[in-house]
């Protein structure tokens, strides 16, 4: 028999950040980083919140630069880990690109997410998609 007290306690300990990001408003990137830093103040191993901020910045920037729509950020931290989702309103799925010398600083976002997150993915969501990543609480 499942102990429902544990799952209720875990849900009660989960904290969430939710933000609507205005179309093409790149000021949302540093603002989101600050809000996430506050959410993660007492979470994870050293350096994990830095990784979370970096990956969140990449997803937010992608949503704002590569779509002509608003986006919604949801970050949920629980005893198991962190899950960040960025929903936009364009159905086209992003793909990690191979880096070329002509790209400069562009095109690295999903490659970073793919290499640093414990899990990540893209799923259709109504009109649009959600790009998400997870970081385990115990990972170093």
Which descriptors apply to this entry?
disordered N terminus, alpha+beta, 4 helices, single chain, 140 residues
What is shown here, in short?
With 140 residues, the chain is an alpha+beta fold.
Terminal-residue CA separation: 33 Å
Poorly predicted spans: 1-8
Residue-averaged pLDDT: 84
Give the structural class. Answer: alpha+beta
Number of helices: 4
Q: How is the biggest beta sheet arranged?
A: 5 strands, antiparallel
Total number of strands = 5
Helix content range of the residues, please? 25-40%
Q: What gyration radius follows from the Cα positions, in whole Å?
A: 16 Å
Order of helices and strands: HEHHEEHEE
Please list the strands of the largest sheet in the order they lie side by side: 1-2-3-5-4
Shape: globular
Q: Strand percentage, roughly? A: 25-35%
Secondary structure elements and pairings:
Elements: H1 4-13, E1 15-21, H2 28-39, H3 48-65, E2 71-77, E3 81-88, H4 109-116, E4 119-124, E5 129-136
Antiparallel strand pairs: 1-2, 2-3, 3-5, 4-5
Describe this protein's structure.
The chain contains 4 helices and 5 strands. With 140 residues, it is an alpha+beta fold. A hairpin with a 3-residue loop joins β2 and β3. α2 runs antiparallel to α3 and α3 packs antiparallel against α4. It is globular and about 35 Å long.
